[in-house]
Design goal:
By secondary structure, the chain is of the alpha/beta class. It has helices spanning 2-6, 10-34, 39-55, 71-81, 83-102, 114-136, 145-150, 152-160, 163-182, 194-209, 221-224, 230-233, 240-264, 274-290, 300-308, 315-330, 340-354, 357-366, 368-383, 386-405, 433-441, 461-474, and strands at 64-65, 297-298, 408-413, 420-428, 449-459, 483-485. The longest helix is centred in the N-terminal third of the chain and has 25 residues, at 10-34.
Length: 498
Amino acid sequence: MENRSKFPHLRQDFAASLVVFLVALPLCVGVAVASGVPAELGLVTGIVGGIVTGLMRGSSLQVSGPAAGLTVLVFEAVNEFGLAALGVIVLISGLLQLAMGALKLGRWFRAISVSVVEGMLAGIGLVLIAGQLYSAAGLKAPTSGIDKILGLPGAAADALGSTAAIASLAVGAGTVAVMVLWKRLPKKVQTVPGALAAVLLATGVTLAFGLPVATVQVNGLLDSIQPPGMDAFGELANPAIFGTILAFTLIASAESLFSAAAVDRLHDGPRTEYDKELMAQGAGNAVCGALGALPMTAVIVRSSANVQAGAKTKASRVMHGVWLLLFAALLPSTLALIPLPALAGILVHAGWKLIPFREIVSLWRSHRGEALILVITAVSIVAVNMFEGVLIGLALSVAKTAWEASHIKLEVIDKGAGPVQAYLSGNATFLRLPKILDSLEALPQDRPVELDLSGLHHLDHACRTALENWAERHSAVGTEPVRVTSTEPERVTISVAS
């Protein structure tokens, strides 16, 4: 009774931890392989995400680990700077997250346009699917996102001419099919996670029929952990690495905090403390970087599995990290049995789920500007790269907001005799200046004009100067100069030559 009072939810948390462990295991390995690093490093990040980040305050039911959303970025970083430099990038990213959390910047990530975040995930999903289709066929994928997509027809032709490639594709396709159909099976069967079931079935079929399919290379846990040395820190002399560090920091933070908001909607427990959650993510990434492992984010698939399995406290995610550690320590050789196309199938499925098809359709019906931002962000990530694609999306989002905020209305009252009255209301910014001037310059020059600015909430310097110039030159010779009035002359004043 005493133990039960100290840990009233131990039974629920223990059961949930096993479910999350079974969900996390194939994803940790799959994300590592797709990122071009040893499979064991994915397990290391899962362990750190469970035990280190799991023990910290922030979001009590959210589970962290290596994420499909960072796969493309990690792959590009390893290709450009080398595996040794990955630890440095992740370490500094973690320290930046800690600093941002300490400065209470976590809540500001909630201000990022949802369209940009969903566009980012869609772009990642497209590149991830394209890259993993090559892996499913046992072929080497091109480096850039656009080359991956454009090269698919040629890769398909090559695969159809090879028996080994067809066998590999069949294993990958079978894995995807099992994951899709698993949701339609009875609830009791679904207690085994679909990803794990798919991998086990693929492994069993490959072994039973002796299929010529590549499997995971196992290096051993201790051999895979390579803390960054001085040579790796020497990469900091390359200015390009700082763009990658910034991309890791911003994307991992945004994905984690958006995931936290989503997880909060799944349960009635304590709400997320965003700044503390950002510090928890930072601490985890700093440890992962020091071990030379993959970066981590909060992962919605594992987190939702945790909630649905009945978890009540953070003990479930900590225990899932312990189970990953025991597996990595006691059964690492079993990884060598897993077929690579099965992992590719899992990530194709994960990439497909990253593409928000319903949201795009919904946005197009109600907010076409936001839908365009989402699509352009995704296409930019595929065509250029992750960091610049996100920057393009953010710039478009800011420009759209500025355009909408600069709403201006000009009402002209001309009674045919006396002065023409013009009323400006709203926000007069440089973005709407051409529209304002076109309308004002169309007013008659041989009649007195009264311009009323009392309805303006904001008048920027460009508009102020332009209105001054228009007022000075508008009236024809012999006509009274433009008269400008405002109920708040201390806020809006325009001098007009008499």
